[in-house]
Design brief:
Elements: H1 2-15, E1 29-36, E2 52-53, E3 64-68, E4 73-76, H2 78-85, E5 91-97, E6 100-107, E7 116-122, E8 129-136, H3 151-159
Organism: Sediminibacterium roseum
Protein name: Lipoprotein
Length: about 160
């Protein structure tokens, strides 16, 4: 009987294999300010290879109320909107999902008289709405990739009920 128990234990342990732990996908959406970065030569656009995110997000997921993907406009809480409008012009930011950068963008207040054609920008027009546009001022055909509705970001926002 003792031999049967040992044989069963060996067979069971040999047939059971441990599976590697699966990565936990949280879908945490946040906006980070950049601690440091360089612009691409001659452009108002973040060079991703030089960008360093701040340790803590400027706007956490709770500050994002919803996103209108057709109009590319975020609705933020009042506190989150105030954090954006308090930034100096041309502040570089990043939209992230689980701290992975989806795209970089630049805060360009409406009173700014400079151009930023080569970047995704926000202008914070009224209240807690944050439009994200291609170029500043908006151009009909900007020569930049449109990452505003990136699938990873849309999936994360959908999972959180913010679309």
């Amino acid at each position: 009987m003792h031999r049967i128990t040992i044989v069963l234990a060996i067979l069971l342990s040999a047939s059971c294999s441990k599976r590697p732990p699966q990565a936990v996908v949280k879908h945490d959406v946040a906006v980070y300010k950049l601690l440091s970065y360089q612009s691409l030569a001659g452009q108002c656009r973040v060079d991703p290879s030089t960008a360093v995110l701040d340790v803590n997000p400027l706007i956490e997921e709770a500050g994002i109320v919803r996103y209108d993907s057709a109009a590319c406009i975020y609705t933020l809480t009042d506190a989150a909107a105030q954090k954006i409008t308090a930034l100096p012009p041309r502040t570089a930011l990043a939209f992230t999902v689980d701290k992975e950068v989806i795209y970089y963008f630049v805060y360009m207040p409406l009173f700014t008289n400079s151009e930023c054609r080569e970047s995704i920008v926000t202008t914070m027009i009224t209240g807690p709405t944050m439009p994200v546009r291609l170029g500043y001022p908006p151009y009909p055909e900007p020569n930049i990739p449109d990452q505003r509705n990136d699938k990873r970001l849309m999936d994360a926002l959908q999972a959180k009920g913010k679309l």
